[in-house]
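Hi there,

I know you've been waiting on this one. I reran it after we fixed the sequence typo, so this is the corrected version. Both the input and the resulting structure follow.
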Amino acid sequence: MSEKRWSRREWIKGIGIAGMGTYLLSRAPVAGVAGTELLSKEATTPQVVPTRPFGKTGVSVSILSLGGMFDIPSNQLLLKQALKWGVTYWDTADCYGGGKSEKGIGKFFSKHPEVRRQVFLVTKSDARDPKGMTRLLNRSLDRMKTDYVDLYFIHGLRDIDELNGDTKRWVADAKARGKIKWFGFSTHRNMEACMSAAAKLGWIDGIMMSYNFRLMHSESMKAAVEACVNAGIGLTAMKTQGGGAVRAETPMEFKLAGKFLKEGFTDKQARLKAVWETPDIASICSQMPNLTILMSNVEAALNKTKLSSESKNLLDEYAAETAQTYCAGCAHLCESVMDETVPIGDVMRYLMYHRNYTDHDEAKTGLAGLSEVTRDRLMNLDFELAERRCPQRMEIGKLMQEAARILT
């Protein structure tokens, strides 16, 4: 290879290898923690991930949050390392891994009870009614071996009407009993509408929403973020990769990957930094199932070099060029014109896990939860009207069929 020029395929393969050890590329080495002494032997003070205020709560959280959708029981070392690097915001849910995620955190707290107070712990409820929420919260507390959670979310809110007076009373009671400190919701679809409405309620403390280089510049998202900030709601961004890594299959992607590499980032690190440059985002929730990804993301958080204006412009151009490949979560537009009920937004999310994040198990689990009637509709319905309503001009019909075939 030293005797000839690299082909595009070989060069991109090199970038992929570099991505497995991205800490070698960044300019702010982590020091003083296990496995990183080779990066900076001279440093004596550990560097930890910065923090930001979380809305009106009065607490600050690490700008990088550990997403709990992985085998936590078997990755106890990762939790320990996350703490050492200052990743103290931990996110999970009652449904992750069928409860294994919460049990893994409980296993860690049982062995290291002294660290519980260091962790900003978040879990989520799939229930909406007070009785169901009480049952799931108590189960989560038991699984995680803790008396309280810092922030309790309604999981996957679709419409603000899912919250009502009963919810508000339940929240007040749970806070009074010391079982939760703060309350909010996560949302994957119709995010802007849910966020703007929540800002008017006066009793929502935190929101986790899809937010990335594709979504952050829309006028509706900017208005929703501003409304939440004015209401004192802490914001956590998820799905920050915006559909997965650059594939370098077009001239734009090739140029983008090269530009990031020249500035000292992988494309995944650059996407995180693009979100962090919005000061109103308190934290990024990222699934980090191994030490390599954790280290890479920590490096990005520590690296104070900002993305160049050229890189930001290239990201905007890339978002426009590849809009048809990414569901923006505005499911109310496409689903409302279908004669028969089809959860297009949910199916798109499961398909993203499969295609872009290579999380095939999560995709299959989600799709397997669809009824036989719904699966049949994915294969056989005419989605032309839905495609006309889609701002991204996605080929919804073909994508629904692709999702259905995952289970065959």
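Quick highlight: The two ends are 42 Å apart (CA to CA).

Best,
R. S.
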